[in-house]
Design goal:
304 residues; alpha/beta; Rossmann fold; six-stranded mixed beta sheet; two-stranded antiparallel ribbon; globular; binds adenosine monophosphate; binds FE2/S2 (inorganic) cluster; binds zinc ion
Length: 304
Amino acid sequence: MKCRRCNRPAAINMRQHKLALCEEHYPEWFVSYTERAIRKYRMFGPEDRILVAVSGGKDSLSLWDVLLRLGYSADGMYIDLGIDGGFGYSRLSREKVEAFVAARPGVRLHVVDVAALYGATIPEVSARKMRGRGKPCAVCGLIKRHEMNRIAQEYGYTVLATGHNLDDEVAVLLSNLLHWQTGYLLRQAPVLVERDGMTRKVKPFCRSYEREVAAYALIQGIDYIYEECPYAVGNLTNFYKDMLARIETESPGAKLQFYQGFLRAREEGFFCGEAAEPPPMHPCSQCGQPTTVPGLCAFCRLWQ
Ligand code: AMP
Ligand code: FES
Ligand code: ZN
Ligand code: ZN
């Protein structure tokens, strides 16, 4: 397989785009493909102050790298969840993020250490809340969302960017469709607009396949944590990802079509009705962040 641009051996063949590119031309293409997604979905502009939520994985670190390359003002934030999993998952991820920053002088990173700040790690607070039953993923998601928005608001960032890729998005889409979660379907978008007290959220890699992001990280020499969170192993999302990978093998481009077709259908009003109206928000009586029920938000109730 030869590179479309220069005829040298290709580093990646993307059947879904009918495009093969070499080590030199692939990163250029990937950066400009991301830029086109940012413009197409009107995610942000050069005047915005972006906060990239980085987990230490390939997606978020590659995203930060691409945004810096494109000249955007982009700082990072890492949440230390205190997850060990027998191999120091959070410690290792944090080291990857810190090494990324150390290699890029002038780049700013916010670190939120959950245990140091609130007195318990994610597995500890989850075990307390769930009385030792179940996985901590729901509690973890709640804490991550709260802390990302808190840092964005406190430091005046106008945009919060996450590394969700196309494979993540189609797995969630499939799950939402299987359960006909119309409220979630309405909110599953490349951009979630800002509201009172809530920073705009964007997913610039929403059209990029996981293997495209991995190829970018590899070619650019971005060192990331390969292991996923120990609590994610064998979860339903990974099962949906496996199913979608099989469909993609039989029908290249299926994931992209599935996702883009969904976005078009939503634009055309396919999912509408009562759920289209976001519920009114009230500031939490303790932390001030927006919440749907007056009084304490779910985050503050968790730590009570
Ligand atoms: P996940 O929910 O683990 O698939 O992660 C989705 C996105 O959330 C990542 O691409 C990051 O942008 C962000 N993220 C996940 N974990 C963390 C973390 N510990 N600190 C900061 N951002 C995170
Ligand atoms: Fe939060 Fe796995 S439980 S990342
Ligand atoms: Zn080439
Ligand atoms: Zn609160």
